[in-house]
Design goal:
The chain is mainly α. It contains eleven helices and no strands. The C terminus is likely disordered.
Length: 278
Protein backbone atom coordinates (compact mmCIF):
# COMPACT_ATOMS: atom_id res chain seq x y z
CA UNK A 1 0.00 0.00 0.00
CA UNK A 2 2.68 2.50 0.98
CA UNK A 3 4.54 1.92 -2.29
CA UNK A 4 1.46 2.80 -4.34
CA UNK A 5 0.67 5.90 -2.28
CA UNK A 6 4.27 7.16 -2.36
CA UNK A 7 4.58 6.51 -6.09
CA UNK A 8 1.37 8.42 -6.70
CA UNK A 9 2.55 11.34 -4.55
CA UNK A 10 5.92 11.51 -6.30
CA UNK A 11 4.28 11.39 -9.73
CA UNK A 12 1.89 14.22 -8.91
CA UNK A 13 4.69 16.34 -7.44
CA UNK A 14 6.86 15.84 -10.51
CA UNK A 15 3.96 16.55 -12.87
CA UNK A 16 2.98 19.80 -11.21
CA UNK A 17 6.56 20.99 -10.92
CA UNK A 18 7.04 20.33 -14.63
CA UNK A 19 3.83 22.23 -15.37
CA UNK A 20 5.05 25.11 -13.18
CA UNK A 21 8.27 25.31 -15.19
CA UNK A 22 6.24 25.56 -18.38
CA UNK A 23 4.10 28.32 -16.81
CA UNK A 24 7.25 30.34 -16.09
CA UNK A 25 8.34 30.09 -19.72
CA UNK A 26 4.98 31.11 -21.20
CA UNK A 27 4.08 33.46 -18.29
CA UNK A 28 0.67 31.91 -17.81
CA UNK A 29 -0.22 30.12 -14.58
CA UNK A 30 -3.70 29.40 -15.95
CA UNK A 31 -2.42 26.20 -17.53
CA UNK A 32 -2.84 24.59 -14.12
CA UNK A 33 -6.64 24.68 -14.46
CA UNK A 34 -7.06 22.38 -17.49
CA UNK A 35 -4.50 20.02 -15.91
CA UNK A 36 -6.71 19.33 -12.87
CA UNK A 37 -8.69 16.55 -14.55
CA UNK A 38 -5.78 14.91 -16.42
CA UNK A 39 -3.75 14.91 -13.19
CA UNK A 40 -6.20 12.38 -11.77
CA UNK A 41 -5.93 10.28 -14.91
CA UNK A 42 -2.14 10.21 -14.54
CA UNK A 43 -2.13 9.32 -10.85
CA UNK A 44 -4.81 6.65 -11.38
CA UNK A 45 -2.88 4.78 -14.06
CA UNK A 46 0.41 5.16 -12.17
CA UNK A 47 -1.25 3.54 -9.15
CA UNK A 48 -2.73 0.85 -11.41
CA UNK A 49 0.73 -0.05 -12.75
CA UNK A 50 2.40 0.17 -9.32
CA UNK A 51 -0.13 -2.14 -7.63
CA UNK A 52 0.46 -5.88 -7.52
CA UNK A 53 -3.03 -6.94 -8.59
CA UNK A 54 -5.59 -4.14 -9.11
CA UNK A 55 -8.08 -6.62 -10.53
CA UNK A 56 -11.30 -5.71 -12.28
CA UNK A 57 -12.21 -3.19 -9.57
CA UNK A 58 -9.00 -1.26 -10.23
CA UNK A 59 -9.56 -1.34 -13.97
CA UNK A 60 -13.15 -0.12 -13.60
CA UNK A 61 -12.05 2.80 -11.43
CA UNK A 62 -9.26 3.68 -13.87
CA UNK A 63 -11.68 3.78 -16.79
CA UNK A 64 -14.21 5.93 -14.92
CA UNK A 65 -11.56 8.42 -13.78
CA UNK A 66 -10.08 8.57 -17.28
CA UNK A 67 -13.42 9.38 -18.91
CA UNK A 68 -14.13 12.11 -16.37
CA UNK A 69 -10.61 13.57 -16.36
CA UNK A 70 -10.10 13.69 -20.12
CA UNK A 71 -13.50 15.31 -20.67
CA UNK A 72 -12.92 17.96 -18.02
CA UNK A 73 -9.39 18.72 -19.16
CA UNK A 74 -10.46 19.03 -22.79
CA UNK A 75 -13.39 21.27 -21.91
CA UNK A 76 -11.27 23.66 -19.85
CA UNK A 77 -8.44 23.73 -22.37
CA UNK A 78 -10.81 24.62 -25.22
CA UNK A 79 -12.66 27.17 -23.11
CA UNK A 80 -9.47 28.93 -21.99
CA UNK A 81 -7.77 28.86 -25.38
CA UNK A 82 -6.78 32.35 -26.51
CA UNK A 83 -8.02 34.09 -23.35
CA UNK A 84 -4.62 34.62 -21.74
CA UNK A 85 -3.88 34.29 -18.05
CA UNK A 86 -6.87 34.15 -15.70
CA UNK A 87 -7.53 37.34 -13.71
CA UNK A 88 -6.88 35.50 -10.43
CA UNK A 89 -3.31 34.73 -11.39
CA UNK A 90 -2.83 38.19 -12.86
CA UNK A 91 -3.80 39.64 -9.49
CA UNK A 92 -1.30 37.35 -7.77
CA UNK A 93 1.36 38.36 -10.26
CA UNK A 94 0.80 42.05 -9.50
CA UNK A 95 0.82 41.41 -5.77
CA UNK A 96 4.00 39.34 -5.61
CA UNK A 97 5.97 40.87 -8.44
CA UNK A 98 9.31 39.14 -8.95
CA UNK A 99 8.44 36.58 -6.24
CA UNK A 100 5.37 35.35 -8.12
CA UNK A 101 7.23 32.40 -9.60
CA UNK A 102 8.20 30.76 -6.32
CA UNK A 103 4.92 31.77 -4.65
CA UNK A 104 2.89 30.20 -7.45
CA UNK A 105 4.89 26.99 -7.13
CA UNK A 106 3.82 26.58 -3.51
CA UNK A 107 0.34 28.10 -3.44
CA UNK A 108 -0.94 27.09 -6.87
CA UNK A 109 0.89 24.13 -8.39
CA UNK A 110 2.10 22.06 -5.43
CA UNK A 111 -1.06 22.85 -3.48
CA UNK A 112 -3.19 21.47 -6.31
CA UNK A 113 -0.93 18.46 -6.51
CA UNK A 114 -1.40 17.78 -2.80
CA UNK A 115 -5.16 18.18 -3.06
CA UNK A 116 -5.26 15.84 -6.06
CA UNK A 117 -3.36 13.21 -4.07
CA UNK A 118 -5.80 13.46 -1.14
CA UNK A 119 -8.92 13.44 -3.32
CA UNK A 120 -7.64 10.44 -5.28
CA UNK A 121 -6.96 8.31 -2.19
CA UNK A 122 -10.00 6.05 -2.82
CA UNK A 123 -8.82 5.49 -6.38
CA UNK A 124 -5.30 4.65 -5.25
CA UNK A 125 -6.56 2.21 -2.62
CA UNK A 126 -8.82 0.53 -5.18
CA UNK A 127 -5.64 -0.57 -6.94
CA UNK A 128 -4.25 -1.99 -3.70
CA UNK A 129 -7.43 -3.83 -2.70
CA UNK A 130 -8.18 -5.15 -6.18
CA UNK A 131 -10.83 -7.83 -6.46
CA UNK A 132 -14.15 -7.82 -8.24
CA UNK A 133 -16.65 -4.96 -7.91
CA UNK A 134 -19.92 -5.77 -6.17
CA UNK A 135 -23.29 -4.16 -5.59
CA UNK A 136 -21.75 -1.10 -3.94
CA UNK A 137 -19.66 -0.53 -7.05
CA UNK A 138 -22.81 -0.74 -9.18
CA UNK A 139 -24.36 2.01 -7.07
CA UNK A 140 -21.15 4.00 -7.48
CA UNK A 141 -21.24 3.69 -11.27
CA UNK A 142 -24.85 4.91 -11.29
CA UNK A 143 -23.93 7.92 -9.15
CA UNK A 144 -20.86 8.58 -11.32
CA UNK A 145 -23.03 8.50 -14.47
CA UNK A 146 -25.49 10.97 -12.94
CA UNK A 147 -22.62 13.28 -12.00
CA UNK A 148 -20.98 13.07 -15.41
CA UNK A 149 -24.31 13.88 -17.05
CA UNK A 150 -24.82 17.01 -14.94
CA UNK A 151 -21.22 18.15 -15.37
CA UNK A 152 -20.89 17.52 -19.11
CA UNK A 153 -24.38 18.61 -20.13
CA UNK A 154 -24.26 21.66 -17.85
CA UNK A 155 -20.95 22.73 -19.37
CA UNK A 156 -22.24 22.20 -22.91
CA UNK A 157 -25.42 24.15 -22.25
CA UNK A 158 -23.45 27.06 -20.80
CA UNK A 159 -21.03 27.12 -23.75
CA UNK A 160 -23.91 27.22 -26.25
CA UNK A 161 -25.64 29.93 -24.23
CA UNK A 162 -22.60 32.20 -24.00
CA UNK A 163 -21.82 31.79 -27.71
CA UNK A 164 -25.34 32.79 -28.77
CA UNK A 165 -25.43 36.56 -29.49
CA UNK A 166 -29.09 36.61 -28.48
CA UNK A 167 -28.10 35.55 -24.95
CA UNK A 168 -25.78 38.47 -24.32
CA UNK A 169 -26.62 40.25 -21.07
CA UNK A 170 -28.93 37.47 -19.88
CA UNK A 171 -28.92 34.96 -17.05
CA UNK A 172 -28.40 31.31 -17.98
CA UNK A 173 -31.52 29.79 -16.42
CA UNK A 174 -32.30 27.09 -18.96
CA UNK A 175 -31.75 23.36 -19.13
CA UNK A 176 -30.05 21.98 -16.04
CA UNK A 177 -29.41 25.55 -14.90
CA UNK A 178 -33.12 25.81 -14.07
CA UNK A 179 -32.69 23.28 -11.27
CA UNK A 180 -29.31 24.22 -9.79
CA UNK A 181 -27.15 27.31 -10.13
CA UNK A 182 -24.09 25.10 -10.44
CA UNK A 183 -24.90 21.85 -12.28
CA UNK A 184 -21.24 21.35 -13.19
CA UNK A 185 -20.12 21.55 -9.56
CA UNK A 186 -22.93 19.25 -8.44
CA UNK A 187 -21.84 16.85 -11.17
CA UNK A 188 -18.26 16.90 -9.94
CA UNK A 189 -19.53 16.20 -6.43
CA UNK A 190 -21.55 13.18 -7.57
CA UNK A 191 -18.68 11.84 -9.72
CA UNK A 192 -16.26 11.70 -6.81
CA UNK A 193 -18.69 10.13 -4.41
CA UNK A 194 -19.35 7.61 -7.17
CA UNK A 195 -15.62 6.93 -7.47
CA UNK A 196 -15.50 6.30 -3.73
CA UNK A 197 -18.36 3.78 -3.81
CA UNK A 198 -16.73 1.89 -6.67
CA UNK A 199 -13.29 1.99 -5.08
CA UNK A 200 -14.09 0.97 -1.49
CA UNK A 201 -13.65 -2.78 -1.22
CA UNK A 202 -13.66 -3.44 2.52
CA UNK A 203 -14.02 -1.72 5.87
CA UNK A 204 -10.26 -1.32 5.94
CA UNK A 205 -10.36 1.19 3.07
CA UNK A 206 -13.30 3.29 4.24
CA UNK A 207 -10.82 5.80 5.67
CA UNK A 208 -10.32 7.02 2.10
CA UNK A 209 -13.70 8.76 2.45
CA UNK A 210 -11.50 11.75 3.24
CA UNK A 211 -11.04 12.07 -0.55
CA UNK A 212 -14.65 12.85 -1.54
CA UNK A 213 -15.09 14.88 1.65
CA UNK A 214 -12.20 17.15 0.66
CA UNK A 215 -13.56 17.45 -2.88
CA UNK A 216 -16.99 18.33 -1.50
CA UNK A 217 -15.47 20.99 0.75
CA UNK A 218 -13.58 22.48 -2.19
CA UNK A 219 -16.71 22.61 -4.32
CA UNK A 220 -19.04 23.95 -1.63
CA UNK A 221 -16.84 26.06 0.64
CA UNK A 222 -13.58 27.01 -1.04
CA UNK A 223 -12.99 27.34 -4.78
CA UNK A 224 -16.41 26.44 -6.14
CA UNK A 225 -19.85 27.65 -5.17
CA UNK A 226 -18.78 29.84 -2.24
CA UNK A 227 -16.13 31.72 -4.26
CA UNK A 228 -18.58 32.62 -7.03
CA UNK A 229 -21.58 33.34 -4.86
CA UNK A 230 -19.63 35.84 -2.74
CA UNK A 231 -19.23 38.21 -5.67
CA UNK A 232 -21.42 37.26 -8.59
CA UNK A 233 -24.57 38.83 -7.16
CA UNK A 234 -22.86 42.21 -6.95
CA UNK A 235 -21.45 41.99 -10.47
CA UNK A 236 -24.45 40.53 -12.31
CA UNK A 237 -27.70 42.50 -12.32
CA UNK A 238 -30.62 40.11 -12.21
CA UNK A 239 -28.65 37.29 -10.63
CA UNK A 240 -30.36 37.86 -7.26
CA UNK A 241 -33.74 37.01 -8.81
CA UNK A 242 -32.28 33.90 -10.43
CA UNK A 243 -30.74 32.86 -7.10
CA UNK A 244 -34.05 33.37 -5.30
CA UNK A 245 -35.74 30.90 -7.66
CA UNK A 246 -33.00 28.31 -8.10
CA UNK A 247 -31.24 25.91 -5.71
CA UNK A 248 -27.60 26.78 -5.15
CA UNK A 249 -26.16 23.27 -5.47
CA UNK A 250 -28.40 20.21 -5.23
CA UNK A 251 -30.94 20.07 -8.09
CA UNK A 252 -34.55 20.72 -7.26
CA UNK A 253 -37.73 22.34 -8.60
CA UNK A 254 -37.80 26.08 -9.03
CA UNK A 255 -39.08 28.11 -6.11
CA UNK A 256 -41.61 30.91 -6.50
CA UNK A 257 -40.44 34.45 -5.93
CA UNK A 258 -41.52 36.15 -2.70
CA UNK A 259 -45.00 37.65 -2.91
CA UNK A 260 -43.56 41.15 -2.90
CA UNK A 261 -41.50 40.50 -6.02
CA UNK A 262 -42.74 40.54 -9.57
CA UNK A 263 -42.02 37.51 -11.75
CA UNK A 264 -38.88 38.08 -13.83
CA UNK A 265 -38.71 37.25 -17.52
CA UNK A 266 -37.47 33.84 -18.60
CA UNK A 267 -33.95 35.25 -18.89
CA UNK A 268 -32.93 38.29 -16.86
CA UNK A 269 -29.98 40.67 -17.37
CA UNK A 270 -26.62 39.39 -16.19
CA UNK A 271 -25.74 35.80 -15.46
CA UNK A 272 -23.08 33.30 -14.52
CA UNK A 273 -21.48 33.34 -17.97
CA UNK A 274 -17.70 33.26 -17.83
CA UNK A 275 -17.74 33.13 -14.03
CA UNK A 276 -18.70 29.46 -14.08
CA UNK A 277 -15.89 26.96 -13.98
CA UNK A 278 -16.33 23.55 -15.53
Amino acid sequence: MSEVLLTAAATLAASFVALWLVSLVIRDASIVDPFWGPAFVIVTWVAYVAADDPGSRGLLVAVLVSIWGVRLGTHLAVRNLGHGEDFRYQAMRRRWGSRFGIVSLATVFLLQGALAWIVSLPVQMAMVDGGRPGWLAAAGVALWALGLFFEAVGDLQLVRFTRDPASRGMVMDRGLWRYTRHPNYFGDFAVWWGHFLVAVAAWGSTWTIVGPIVMSALLLRVSGVALLERSIGNRRPGYAEYAARTNAFFPGPRKPLPASGSPPPASSPGGPGADQKG
